[in-house]
């Protein structure tokens, strides 16, 4: 899978993509992730990527020219690819595990544009962006952190990234329920014991216990997930 990220602050992302599962995905050549410095595509000596908004108002707006040039450069490196260009924005569709699964399964060439400052010139949204995505109803300083979140959620679902033990099948939200409780050694710590069923070696009983605990946890913490699941089934 090809993933490109366009950012005015590339150092915010390079470390993230060199660790853990992202590093494994790149080393296994399951995902090719490139970070592009937006300032390379400016033409003035100050490498300006923002300017004052027309009509006045607080804050600075990201200029269209560097973003268009960056996408043009990405297209030049992969002629024939159809690019899905994603802009991280609080105005976008709320990101979810279902969206991550769909993007991983589609295997499209993804390009993430990271916003900054007050916003981006609307011509970028109207003429360049395929989809706007939000990771929640709150405001962050920049789009680099949301981009890293979305990319991590997608890449870990690509076949071969996770081993059998770390399989995404049991993740929270994977089957519209939260994950069940997990325990490891020691079996007793400061008087707190691991549930007996997990020490029994009886796989069917363990499976049933985990299913029940997953349901109980979802009912207690996120009942909306169960309501949503029922709505989807009707």
In short:
By secondary structure, the protein is of the alpha/beta class. The protein contains nine helices and ten strands.
Walk me through this protein's architecture.
It is a single chain. With 234 residues, the protein is α/β, with parallel strands linked by helices. It folds into two domains: 2-155, Alpha/beta knot (3-Layer(aba) Sandwich); 172-233, Trp Operon Repressor, Chain A (Orthogonal Bundle), CATH 1.10.1270. Helix content is 38%, strand content 18%. The strands form three sheets. A five-stranded parallel beta sheet has the order 2-1-6-5-8. Strands 3-4-7 form a three-stranded mixed beta sheet. The protein has a two-stranded antiparallel ribbon with strand order 9-10. Helix 4 (97-106) packs across helix 6 (144-155) and helix 8 (203-221) crosses helix 9. The protein is elongated and about 70 Å long.
């Amino acid at each position: 899978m090809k993933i490109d990220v366009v950012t005015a602050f590339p150092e915010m992302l390079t470390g993230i993509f060199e660790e853990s599962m992202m590093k494994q995905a790149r080393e296994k050549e399951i995902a090719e992730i490139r970070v592009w410095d937006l300032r390379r595509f400016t033409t003035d000596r100050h490498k300006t990527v923002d300017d004052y908004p027309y009509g006045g108002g607080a804050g600075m707006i990201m200029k269209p020219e560097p973003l268009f040039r960056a996408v043009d450069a990405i297209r030049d490196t992969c002629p024939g690819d159809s690019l899905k260009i994603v802009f991280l924005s609080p105005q976008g569709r709320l990101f979810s595990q279902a969206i991550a699964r769909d993007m991983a399964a589609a295997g499209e060439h993804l390009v993430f544009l990271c916003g900054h400052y007050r916003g981006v010139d609307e011509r970028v949204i109207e003429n360049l962006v395929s989809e706007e995505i939000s990771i929640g109803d709150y405001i962050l300083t920049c789009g680099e952190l949301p981009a890293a979140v979305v990319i991590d959620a997608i890449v870990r679902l690509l076949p071969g990234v996770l081993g059998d033990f770390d399989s995404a099948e049991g993740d929270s939200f994977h089957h519209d329920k939260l994950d069940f409780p997990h325990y490891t050694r020691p079996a007793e710590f400061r008087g707190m014991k691991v549930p007996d069923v997990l020490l029994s070696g009886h796989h069917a009983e363990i499976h049933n216990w985990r299913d029940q605990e997953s349901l109980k946890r979802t009912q207690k913490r996120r009942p909306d997930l169960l309501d949503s699941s029922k709505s989807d089934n009707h």
